[in-house]
């Protein structure tokens, strides 16, 4: 295991390719441990460089209602 910090997009892509190779490795094996460490490093890099903003609860609810078709059902009940 030659794991190093992820500092660039190239480092990220290299780590993601290695994760793909290691996917399915047994827990607590050498490969499984490498997979776990790489996943943590990727998560840290992505959290810092590609943050996902918190959603507005009202907008999230509106989206959920509209995407599930519930809005049509609610409209029929109130008319």
Describe this structure as you would to a colleague.
This is Transcriptional regulator. The structure is a single chain. This protein is mainly α. It has helices at 9-22, 30-49, 57-68, 70-78. It has one domain (9-78). The chain is 70% helix and 0% strand. The radius of gyration is 21 Å and the shape is elongated. The mean pLDDT is 90.
Question: What distinguishing features does this structure have?
Answer:
Transcriptional regulator; single chain; 79 residues
In short:
This protein is an all-alpha fold and 79 residues long. The protein contains four helices and no strands.
Unreliable parts: none
- Total count of strands: 0
Number of domains: 1
Percent in strands = under 5%
The structure class reads mainly alpha
The amount of helix comes to: 55-70%
The termini sit apart by 64 Å
**How would you describe the shape?**
elongated
Summarize model confidence as the mean pLDDT: 90
Rg, alpha carbons: 21 Å
Q: Tell me about the biggest sheet? A: none
What is the string of helix and strand elements? HHHH
- Helices, by number, come to 4
Protein name: Transcriptional regulator
């Amino acid at each position: 295991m030659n794991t190093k910090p992820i500092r660039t997009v190239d480092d990220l892509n290299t780590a993601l390719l290695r994760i793909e190779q290691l996917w399915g490795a047994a827990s607590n094996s050498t490969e499984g441990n490498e997979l776990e460490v790489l996943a943590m490093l990727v998560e840290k890099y992505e959290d810092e460089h590609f943050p996902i903003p918190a959603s507005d609860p009202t907008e999230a609810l509106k989206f959920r209602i509209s995407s599930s078709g519930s809005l049509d059902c609610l409209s029929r009940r109130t008319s």
